[in-house]
């Protein structure tokens, strides 16, 4: 469902040099699978996810979502993908119901089908009680849930989530991760990046650890050695070195 092959993304630095933000990354996520993308700040996680979301063009390599290439068919990718980032904003003056209706109509939904879809999302995301309240009056956690609802309103088969729990408290994070497990059980492919390793340690099917733009380790929790006493955090530091911060 999500397939990345030898992905490279270069930036030109202020001194004229080349920064290799992503340097030959290959990964895949199958339907019904949740994969954790891990790395320290600046490792290349967000750049990889932004390429998948068609927000950045790859320098070389390929990335596809449901068979749609990010470089040659970005519209097809956007129809098949839901994308959420920690910095995704929602308009202060619009209510959650209005935002979901707007994005749903942009994806071709209308009438009773769209209204039913919105009602389901508002309920499962815990937003039914604030559905008609302007987002400027919502908590940061509620706003993040609106962002997730916006990414799901067109019922995409794949999800890419960059730090989705960063604005949530402990309860909100637990509820969101439980919701993601439900989406995985429905057959969606989910690629999630987070610094909160404990939240995904026992929820993801596999993990991909990236450092300096390159994959340095990947596999199941057991294959990475996270089944030992130190858990996923120790496996992470063993892969990238003790000096980094997850």
- The H/E string reads EEEHEEHEHHHEHEHEEH
Helical region count?
Answer: 8
Summarize the main sheet.
6 strands, mixed
Helix content: 25-40%
Quick overview:
The chain has 246 residues and is an alpha/beta fold.
Give keywords.
single chain; 246 residues; alpha/beta; Rossmann fold; six-stranded mixed beta sheet; four-stranded antiparallel beta sheet
Describe the structure.
- It is globular, with a radius of gyration of 18 Å.
- The longest helix has 16 residues.
- Helix 3 packs across helix 4 and helix 3 runs parallel beside helix 5.
- It is of the alpha/beta class and 246 residues long.
- Helix content is 34%, strand content 26%.
- It has a domain of 172 residues: 3-Layer(aba) Sandwich (Rossmann fold).
Could you outline the blueprint of secondary structure elements for this entry?
Elements (H helix, E strand, L loop, with lengths): L1 E11 L5 E12 L4 E5 L6 H8 L7 E6 L2 E2 L4 H7 E5 L10 H11 L4 H14 L15 H13 L5 E5 L7 H16 L3 E5 L3 H4 L5 E6 L2 E6 L11 H10 L6
Parallel strand pairs: 3-8, 3-9, 6-7, 7-8
Antiparallel strand pairs: 1-2, 1-4, 4-5, 9-10
Helix pairs in contact: 3-4, 3-5
